[in-house]
Specification:
The structure holds two protein chains of two kinds.
Chain A lengths: L1 E12 L2 E12 L3 E6 L5 H9 L6 E6 L2 E2 L5 H7 L1 E4 L11 H8 L9 H13 L1 H5 L10 H13 L5 E5 L7 H16 L3 E6 L2 H7 L2 E6 L2 E6 L1 H6 L1 H8 L3
Parallel strand pairs in A: 3-8, 3-9, 6-7, 7-8
Antiparallel strand pairs in A: 1-2, 1-4, 4-5, 9-10
Chain B lengths: L5 H29 L6 H18 L12 H36 L4 H23 L14 E5 L2 E4 H23 L1 H11 L1 H6 L4 H26 L10 H14 L4 H22 L4 H15 L15
Antiparallel strand pairs in B: 1-2
Helix pairs in contact in B: 1-5, 1-8, 1-9, 1-10, 2-3, 2-4, 2-8, 2-9, 3-4, 3-8, 5-6, 5-8, 6-8, 9-10, 9-11, 10-11
The chains are: A alpha/beta, B mainly alpha.
Chain lengths: ~240, ~325
């Protein structure tokens, strides 16, 4: 069944129309990728789903429930967690405190499961374990990205929104991050992924959408779009 | 002369500086979360002062008399008056936020609009007191006359000074523990460091803002009690003006947005102005306080401890 459904969503920043009638569906258990150039509306779509931006018109349902009137902080309780573009690590908090913030909405914060979830983040990203008492602001970009993903998992999301997780990262980190995204998905978390790194994003996507200037211009299974010559020309470069 | 009075000035400065520090915490908390200088905070303090004063009246104390009540009774009355002052100031701060700042936030108003609103709110509250209570100070009610308890290097330490310094430090520790050790406090720090991401963690920003104002108001109410114990004739409509500016200066001196900075700034400012007074004379008291601020900012623009509520690890 579809976990998240957007239909005819319009979003504007003041007088600038950022999304024009976007419709997309995320099935439970899938990885869905959104690709597109700068300014196509990828991040806007993410912020609309997480509630940082309001929509002008259109409908948005999560698990069959209308989401448009739900406050952003309450959407986290419903299981929608966004890893924001630029990672959003709290610079003055340690790695452990950042992970703790990820589980802010949980009531079992002193329980064994909570500690186990923390340890799981360290299993995904062993580098973080070495730095657990280091302040977030002093981590490298790759470490911050790992921490941001680990932190979002602390809320036990049903739908994980990842906004450009590979941005600005060294190649060895990029591989690791995408591997972990697949692992997370295999454990049952639905993933909506925004990427400029279209090869990677389409490679692991069950379903993908192409955004251009605020509109969905193409959609289909990731492998199908990956093989499409027009997509290759526009987004994959010469390869 | 300066050396003769050195220890007396130090102790006195610590005691009065504790009052600055408690008020400075309110400035710093709100600044940390909203990047707003809440100029009406000095009037929140005045609301606390009048709250304490009217509680004294309601408890049957009259201006001019020294009450003949056993010490335990005096302390109980002081605690009660302090609690009323704290609650009134805390509630007033929350109402101020609702009425003056929240509507601006909803409309995404520019920062300057907040600042001018803060100044306006400050005037409104001040004038309400002037119209209803007149411009003369209320009569002096002194519950606990200062008496030396022991001496440090020959300088007397009074019962009032001990109470104020110890109580202020205790309140600071409670506030600091709340912000650094509790879940809600961590939410406050998260909003201060990155409001959008804090929302994505499920933090209700509006509630964090409310709690911040409440906490600042409570501390200002406690400061109001200590102020009235030190200066019993101080219940007057504009009594918060200079004290508010000094407390704000203390917050900046220590590093605005930083709780420990507010404490340190308050104490240093309190001591420094006493030293200045004894070196240059009473007229120079306030000058020394602000010259100190300017001097420190020239070398450390972010204040002594620097960094904001969120970013400072402490």
């Amino acid at each position: 069944m579809s976990l998240l459904e957007l239909a005819g969503v319009n979003v504007a920043y003041g007088r600038i129309q950022a999304l024009r009638g976007i419709s997309l569906t995320v099935q439970e258990g899938q990885i869905v990728s959104l690709i597109g150039a700068n300014g196509a509306g990828k991040t806007t779509t993410m912020k609309t789903i997480s509630g940082l931006l309001g929509l002008q018109s259109g409908s948005m349902t999560f698990d069959g429930e209308d989401l448009t009137k739900v406050r952003a902080d309450l959407r986290v309780r419903k299981g929608i967690c966004q890893v924001p573009e630029g990672r959003g690590i709290f610079p003055g908090m340690t790695v452990l405190e950042n992970l703790d913030m990820g589980g802010f909405v949980r009531s079992d914060r002193r329980s064994k499961e909570f500690t186990e979830d923390q340890e799981r983040a360290f299993t995904y990203f062993p580098r973080l374990a070495e730095r657990r008492n280091q302040v977030g602001g002093t981590l490298s970009g790759g470490e911050q990205q790992m921490l941001a993903i680990g932190r979002a998992l602390m809320a036990r999301p049903r739908l994980l929104l990842l906004d450009e997780p590979s941005m600005g990262l060294a190649p060895q980190f990029i591989q690791q991050i995408f591997r972990v995204i697949e692992d997370i998905n295999r454990e049952g978390v639905t993933v909506l992924l925004v990427e400029q790194n279209a090869t990677q994003a389409l490679g692991l996507a069950h379903q993908a959408y192409v955004l251009e200037t605020g509109e969905v211009t193409r959609s289909g299974p990731g492998s199908e779009l990956l093989a499409d010559p027009t997509i290759q020309d526009a987004y994959l470069g010469v390869s | 002369m300066f050396l003769d009075r050195f220890w007396a000035n130090t102790i006195n400065g610590l005691s009065y500086g504790s009052i600055y520090a408690l008020v400075a915490l309110g400035y710093t908390l709100v600044y940390g979360v909203l990047q707003l200088i809440n100029f009406a905070h000095s009037e929140i303090f005045v609301i606390g002062v009048f709250g304490v004063y009217f509680t004294f009246l309601a408890l049957g104390f009259q201006p001019g008399q020294t009450p003949n009540v056993p010490l335990a009774g005096i302390i109980a009355n002081l605690v009660l008056a302090g609690a009323v002052g704290m609650i009134l100031a805390g509630v007033a701060a929350v109402i101020l936020e609702r009425v003056a700042y929240r509507p601006l936030r909803k409309r995404n108003a520019p920062r300057l609009a907040f600042l001018i609103t803060a100044i306006g709110a400050s005037f409104v509250i001040q004038q309400v007191f002037r119209i209803t209570r007149g411009s003369n100070p209320e009569g002096t009610i002194r519950l606990l006359p200062p008496e030396p308890v022991f001496r440090i290097f020959g300088a007397p330490v009074t019962n009032l000074q001990i109470i104020i310094i110890v109580a202020a430090l205790a309140l600071f520790v409670i506030a600091d523990t709340f912000v650094n050790r509790t879940r809600l406090g961590r939410g406050v720090r998260a909003v201060a460091q990155d409001p959008a991401t804090a929302t994505l963690m499920g933090v209700n920003r509006e509630r964090v803002i409310m709690i911040t104002f409440l906490l600042g108001g409570l501390l200002a109410g406690a400061a109001a009690l200590f102020y009235l114990m030190t200066i019993p004739q101080g219940a007057v409509f504009n009594g918060g003006f200079l004290l508010g500016i000094k407390a704000f200066a203390a917050a900046v001196l220590g590093g605005i947005g930083n709780l420990r900075g507010a404490l340190l700034g308050g104490l240093i400012l309190g001591i420094a102005e006493n030293y200045g007074q004894s070196l240059f004379g009473g007229d120079w008291r306030d000058v020394v306080a602000f010259v100190l601020l300017v001097g420190v900012l020239m070398f450390r623009p972010t204040g002594i401890l620097g960094e904001s509520l969120g970013k400072a690890r402490v």
